[in-house]
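Deliverable D4.2, example record:
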Amino acid sequence: MARMFALITFFVSLCMSYFSSIAYAGFQNLPSLVIMAEPSLTETITEIGRRYSKDHRVSVTCSFDNSTNQIDEINLGEAVNVFLTSDSTYVQQLKTQGVIDAYTVVNLASNKLVLAIPKNHALRLQLKAKKSFEEVLQSLIDTHTSFVMTDSNKTDQGHKIRQSIEHYALWDTLSPLAITSLNSRQTVQLMLKENRPGFVYLTDVVNYHDLEILKPIQDNAYDPIIYQAVVVAGDQMEIGRQFIATISDPKYQQIFAYYGFGPHP
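Output generated by the structure prediction step:
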């Protein structure tokens, strides 16, 4: 958990140091943009924030946490301009509460779930030799191999991982072997620290070279993973609208692709 927090803090600090250098160059009193996003978007939104700040002379603050925690902060009145999440139920909830601009809900990118393993795991070659995802799951059961996944009761990713296992009617048998984490970033850290397989986003494997995909998970086994951006209601909504309109541009969409995200529907 400490490593996850340190990593996220590092990226936010990197953002802020970059923005400070812009102000030092003579762009004091910049308009302020505050973004909340999921940990799986850390590298991507940090890079987008850098470029957006430079291109539009805006000071950008990035915050990365579970959508559940961020929703609580928004409802408590935290100053936020843009909220990014892959959980459409939260977007609908905020719409119903009148907390967001319902006309600026934009699909930005997509992701996929994969079953991955550290490259130095003893069972890597044995598991990779299996012909199907279902066979890999059965092998985890047969060898009593524990794995890491996000909490299926508290995260959208965990819910979709459970969907994918239930698709093969193996949840009741496999779930006792699960080690649960708080979010996607912590899942990766636990996999690497404890040398265990785990369910992660495709983008995690792209960005962590010590991991390798065992098997992709069929798209029809879980609900699509679509990241949406919304403008949070408040006095500075226009700056949020401008940001969302701009990052939908191909120039910024290339950043999502670079970090392994797919196109939005």
